[in-house]
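Section: Multi-chain targets

For targets with more than one molecule, the full set of components is provided together so that the structure can be written out for the assembly as a whole rather than chain by chain. Components appear in the order listed by the source. The example entry contains two components.
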Amino acid sequence: MTSFLSSRAGSSLTTEAAASPLEISRRLAWTRREFLRSAAGVTLGGALLRFSPTARAQASPIKKRKVIVVTFGGGARDQETFAPEGQENIPHLMKELIPQSTFFARVVNRGILGHYVATASLATGVYETINNFASLPPEHPTAFEYFRKDLKRPSADTWVVAPSNGFNRIGESSNRSYGQGLGARVILPKHLLTAAKSSDADYAHLLRDNYETPFYTPQLGGGEFELQQLETILKLSAADFRAHALTLSSPDELSLYIVRQLMREQAPSLLWITMHDIDIAHAGTYSLYIEGIRRTDRLCAELWKTIQSEPEYAGQTTLFVLPDFGRDSDDDAGGNGFQHHRTGDVLSRTTWMMVLGGGVRESVIYDRPVDSTDLVPTLGALLGFSASQSQGKPIAELL
Amino acid sequence: MLPADLKPERFNSYPPEARKLVTANLATLQRLPLTFLPSLLREAIDYDYKFPAERKSLDTELKKISSLPIAEFGDWFKGFSEIHLSKEMENFDWVGSPAQFVENLSSYLWTTHQLDGFRKAAIEYGNRLHEAIPTEAPPFQRLGITVVGQGVSSYNEQLFRKLRPHGAYFKNVKPDDGLKILLDAVAARAKAHASPYAHWYIDGGQEAEHDPVLTAVSYRALEGVRATILKKMRTEIDQPGMGPEALRTALAQIRPRDLGLSDASDPVLDRFRVRLLTEGSGTQIYSTTFAQWAAREALRRAQPLTLLVRFAPRQRQRTMNELLSLRPEQVEFDPVGSLVDADMGAYYNWLNQQRLAGAEQSAFLVWFENHGDAVAISPAMPRGTESTVATDLKQLLSWML
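Its structure, encoded as tokens over all components, is:
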């Protein structure tokens, strides 16, 4: 998080510094919108939409509704995704998911750009300021706590599947009115695999942890998923789990495998999946970063197919896909392009969100600014809880 | 302590040239806000190990700040002065450990939501400095060369997509003796325009035979140093309570002699080499990252007149723990993935070169090693064009320069 300070007297190659952050953000959203309009054939949302024939799917009754949130892999830039030269990396998003979705082209993250703290902020609707690398719970109530307390839902009804051991406290906050016993259960697939694996098999490729600090894996504390629960909750023997894991190629594939099992066996109403493969970019290898984007694109499409094929989810699930934040632009001399998200520049703060499923208009794009803290109140409006401490507002276009 | 309380003896631990610099400018330093000064001291404390271009830049910056009239001085640092710091930050040993203070400041700004204000102040300061100090054009045309694709026999995807719009794409370049031609050309420039640290050769693998007149850095030559650093990292990680910040601090404190580099060699270059491995992310593991980061840092810090960067195959991706402990004979390479890395790396090399003075006159060549594809960028080359004319690298360079 420090390199912007090293550019104390650095110069910028372009005129980005001359434009206001607001203008850069607006321009980014506009180009993203135009890319999508031309490539995916989506319609611009706005006042005319009220009279548009664009289909709005029927929302299911609130008690039966399910919501799945996917954070898109650790952040990717437009030039590797939505820009014309990047679209080859996200064929599934472009051809399958975006045409079915309402797309927000300008989601602004005003918080700390570290993955744990940013994901915690998305989950609470408040810009959290906890140490990104410490094993700490969020300070404000999470969506999972609002959901369970307001709606009196059991713990099995909301789950988080997270990539890094550092995310083991994301399920519930330290807030006195909520907190312990009211949050989501957290599955750390890599932790599970470590516990289940036999010593001689090659699972190493699935056990990569935090790319931002690749040499450091925090000690676990809090409510991690215990190995013996493989059988009781996921209905999966350790041997089957190990055998299947050997067929997978990345930590996010392992996460999706667990998610499918969870959907089948527990059918939670609020499910949160944090993907992370793209964050290999921190190692500075462009080819691995691109591979991560392509894999995440494919996994999002596979998840959507799973939603359609699972009776508990088909027709009554709303899927949110959004990055926690972006990555540094090539134009900021203080960064090193795609490698990090350290400059705090506008591009790394301006991301997107696609929403698809029950009750969501298809093939529509909005470029008005949406704040990343708006997610939790929106989930509240869809599921029927009140995100009373969130700083955000429900997104009207989704209600 | 606040800057106004600074005394010369506070700098007794600084190396001699650094001490001389800060004590000579003490009156100016005392007037600077605490949100700004440690980042200046972070540069000053390393003055003895800086490249000539960096020393000159720091001297000029201090001279400019010292000459500002009172009202203008206030304007320049207003944004920094408006940032609130905690007592804890004020009490930190920011004179003795300015880099650590800056690290802490970064976290502090994020958590107190003052980052945007700081960023704005930093950009404004940079722009003022840029405007106030006339840019000095390099003594002759700057040249960057990047060689990619070592070990790749064929590649069907389009190369140099980001660079082609800026220059001419040649698809029929005779590859024979290509690397030697380029290294000879770079050495000839070094001899014709001799200047310390002005002509560089960076290799992501084993250095090819080259003239010792070049400042050379290679991944292979640092293998022993890398192994020692990785061992230190493993030891640090195993310490109870070790976190990423503590690890970064521990790495930043490593000095060349801790790694077996002799004081008798080139202390400036040795410090540079070690920092590539202790401050870079991924440079310890992937040779393509090392080559790109080394080029970025050489351009940013030494501002070379000539820079040849050759990428080499990196190892395949495995878990970080495995990568940290692999023996050389266990390493598997990924030449095609490395070519993709290097293609982007070449673009970054060009971008970073364009950030230096004389950018509009500078020249840049990227070549697919042992193949016929190259992009030549210079004022003499028509942008966004393609040529099938048969040529060789020597002729190509002569057209560019």
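DSSP finds 16 helices and twelve strands in chain B.
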